[in-house]
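Worked problem 6 (solution included).
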Amino acid sequence: MRRTRRQWVTLGLAAVLLAALCVLAAFWQWHRYTDRQEQIALVEANYGTDPAPLAELVNAPGTVLAPDDEWRPAVVVGEYVPAGTMLLRNRPVNGTPGFHLLVPLRTELDGEPVVLVVDRGFVPLGADAGEPAAVPAPPAGEVAVTVTLRPDEPAADRGAQAGTVSRINNDQVLAAAVSGGATAVADDATVGAYGQMRSEDPAAEALVPAPRPDTDPGSHLSYTFQWVIFALGAVGGFVLLWRRETRAATVSAGELIAADDPGGTSRPRRERRAARHADEEHEDALVDASQTE
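Solution. The predicted structure is:
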């Protein structure tokens, strides 16, 4: 049964719509791929550089870490405030659930006291899933801490249990620390960055360090090509279906013409002329036979 014009138009529009959606998905995956490549390039450019003094990267209270300086190592000299230790939850390391220990580090920038929140490392869960196995104390007195600088995370939009936070946001972490009794950091300024600890001098009990940033590009590029192939397949499938059905209709019309032409008038001229010549020779033979009798 041949499709009507309306059916062909409907199929064509559906194929175009499907192809357009596939193209949009391809562009989305392409943008994710390029964004990921930029992140990887930033990690490779900054993570392995020599540590710089904090003042070279964040030079005054309230300063926000520049995007191009993310993953840079920095050396911060100051004193930890153990009373302000907070537990960062829902950040497993290598698939292991637990907490990160966030400890305020008091230092100075431009002659003013500043607090930088330091992620000292990871501790697994204890017997009670709501508590860590242990909370090692940081070194006492002045300490030189080498950290990887990361931009301040957006503040969480909902509260957390006492002693815990869900984001590493300096102001929010310090507010929770003060409410827990760490009044030593109540009046100090902050900066728009936090540090992931690499080393301490003097060193305290070792914790599981933050993992090296992931540089796996992912599958975004291959997904881009897949969506392009799907788009071409949608259009190509419609064209193939249309050509196949049109060709079938043409062959059927030719068969109908041949069926309505029993005398062979639709045959080539040479074949018709040969047939007439054979008929004439047959008639001549019949005439000669009748005269002989």
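Discussion: The helical segments are 5-46, 54-57, 170-179, 220-259, 269-292.
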